């Protein structure tokens, strides 16, 4: 698959003067709930109403979706509000039903994108459709697997494609439910600048208080739109309660977002904003890594303490220094810079170890 300006046609056809917005509950629960939320979102910047009909739950016992009857509710919501309808599909049977009920936007969920057999089954079932099909990133941080999902659909003659960035699973507990790993989406965007890219701050954060900040970060990185879980009674939602916002809260988020005009802005301004946002992401990664490195230094300090060994081991330090200067040169980094940088890292590491050994 190659980048192609026509990848954006479906999005441009909306003729929006703001980012593309998909909103609605994690799951369709009752007819009343679906209609209530859809009506509250009707006169807003929302173009597509989302609701999960089949829910892939990590462990059995959770709400696994209302099933086919929910598609009837979506059809009714579309007739009453004019909003387009979107849902997740994971099997050939889901795809057939979604097409039968004329669902406008289908997305492949994160657990499904991780499974090429399942994605191929979806591609074969949807072959040639003019529906919009969006591919969520796989649960594991693998850009090729994500792109592979898009390629399978593309090869099946599906033209209206896009990707949703919903973050990645980690074993470590972080402030995110799924860590964004922005650099993976940025890499995809650099390869396919015309493939619409949508942020899913709900599943990245797992926390309604962080939705605005993550969406803003994405817009600063030139994302094309967002998918935000929106529920009339979030706390009592049947799935993903902590991350859902009310329709009013969503409207406030849309107001608070700083949206750069697509046209009118000088080319320079656009390029700089994008590059600076890239730098911000990389700086955050640097800090994260340095923090991790210091944690390892702390552990080393602990082992040295237990074995009564001196903090400074000159031979080891010279070895690191030489290796880093050589590696740095390959990346165009001067010896002077690398030496200063690693001296400073080493100093901090020694201070950490001192504290442990003497503290
Ligand atoms: C969802 O959008 O409700 C969902 C299940 O998302 P994901 O596939 O990203 O976990
Ligand atoms: Mn959800």
TrEMBL record:
SMART domains associated with the record: CM_2
EC numbers: 5.4.99.5
InterPro entries tied to this protein: Aldolase_TIM, Chorismate_II_sf, Class-I_DAHP_synthase, CM_dom_sf, CM_II_prokaryot, DAHP1/KDSA
EC class name: isomerase
Domain named Chorismate mutase: residues: 266-357
Domain of life: Bacteria
Keywords, in A-Z order: Transferase
Protein name: chorismate mutase
